[in-house]
Amino acid sequence: MVGVRRSLVMVVVAAVLAPLALSGCGDNKKSGAASAAWVGNGASASAAPDASQGASQGPITESANVPIELTVTPAAGKKDVPTSAEIGFQVSGGKVTTVALKDAAGKDVSGALREDGSTWVPAKTLKAKTTYAASVTATTDSGLSKTATTTFTTMGAPGKKTGTGLYLFDGNTYGVAMPVVVEFSPGIKKADRAAVEKRMFVTTTPAQPGVWSWTSSGTQAYYRAKEYWQTGTTLKVRIAVGGVPTGGGRYGDRDRAATAKIGRDLEMKVDNATKKMTVTQDGKVVRTALVSLGRKSKPSVSGAMVVMDKLAETVFDTTDTDGAAGYKTKIQYAQRITWSGQYVHSAPWSVGSQGRTNVSHGCVNVSPSNARWLFDNTLIGDPVTVTGTGSKLAYGDGWTAWNVSWSEFVKGSALPVPDSLK
């Protein structure tokens, strides 16, 4: 998980490098728009360069007296290199100005320099069982240069993979509380998270530095800034974990990427004391709705949640978990806010209790007209905050990135977090 915004400096291959910014009331199953983002164990690959790969000293473009020391990784002739390999280099007496990578057919491979200039990252996972040739040129202030080259061969398709999912769709518009959510199956153990997080890149326009934070199980990682995203923000995400060693002999199944927008600032706040929801847009109250929350035996949770899924019509079926005590009911205008099955939804049967008494199985019940208005006006990623129920939201039960303080959130990063972001 990235302890700070990890971006890539995009460069034209073989060109000069210029550092640019590179059991509730519903079911407890993942469904709809959220689960549709999940893609199971596919095939592909990516990984971070290993120090054990050694270094290759190539020819120089000037005389042997050029005052530059330059080594490149992976080492010359290295085999079984992960398909996520980055071109690494150690340089003194100058700075790297050109990186070029070609495949076995001599075709240029595009890529980007990390923001800190430490390595060059291919724009896509490399092909399996393929030989690549890389060259890196460093130049002094006076214009002298030295070039080091290397060739290496990537590994074959791994036998075991870690499935991945990115809950962000290319071209979609989301609410201001939409975290970047990445899912792993099986979960990533603590010892392996840093290497994986280092390959998860987020760029925000306008810039809003953020941090990655992992759930305790390692099955999800969230990326957010200190405050909600600014309206109009563009999120550009690349989860470049294809082929990255993820522990236990597994490798990430594939790279994933999306570019999405953040829309208007619409927030829903539910107060159990008043049994009322207040909806604001850009700071102004635009709707109020009476609610009925979870009864004493099935309490609603209090916490900062996010709309994860929207279903115009669905069926809540709890018979598989509650047996004879369960129920199967058609529901309209359902908006999921937890994995455990709590929703905001239309409940015509509880209109008489809304604003007065809690009678639901944990969901936020609203009238049909209010439910329809909410459904028509909300986005995935809009924040829903519930207070006063006495039952706390569990971290990871939904997209809970906002349910902890910023100081607590950054503790979940697997990489060091700069003091400026703590």
TrEMBL record:
Protein name as it appears in the record: L,D-TPase catalytic domain-containing protein
> What biological processes does GO assign it?
cell wall organization; peptidoglycan-protein cross-linking; regulation of cell shape
- Name of one Pfam family that matches: Big_10
The active-site annotation reads: H345, C363
Q: Which InterPro entries match?
A: Big_10, LD-transpeptidase, LD_TPept_cat_dom, Transpep_catalytic_dom
Signal sequence annotation: 1-23
Q: Is-annotated flag, keyword NADP?
A: no
Q: Where is this region: Disordered?
A: 46-66
Question: Which CDD domains does the record match to this protein?
Answer: LDT_IgD_like_2 (cd13432), YkuD_like (cd16913)
Pathway per the UniProt entry? Cell wall biogenesis; peptidoglycan biosynthesis
- One Gene Ontology term of the molecular function aspect: peptidoglycan L,D-transpeptidase activity
Ranges of Polar residues compositional bias? 53-64
Q: Name one GO cellular component term.
A: extracellular region
- The membrane-spanning stretches of this chain are none
- Which species? Paractinoplanes tereljensis
Q: Which residues form the L,D-TPase catalytic domain?
A: 266-387
PANTHER family, A to Z: L,D-TRANSPEPTIDASE, L,D-TRANSPEPTIDASE YCIB-RELATED
Which keywords label this protein?
Acyltransferase, Cell shape, Cell wall biogenesis/degradation, Peptidoglycan synthesis, Signal, Transferase
Q: What is the lineage of its organism?
A: Bacteria, Bacillati, Actinomycetota, Actinomycetes, Micromonosporales
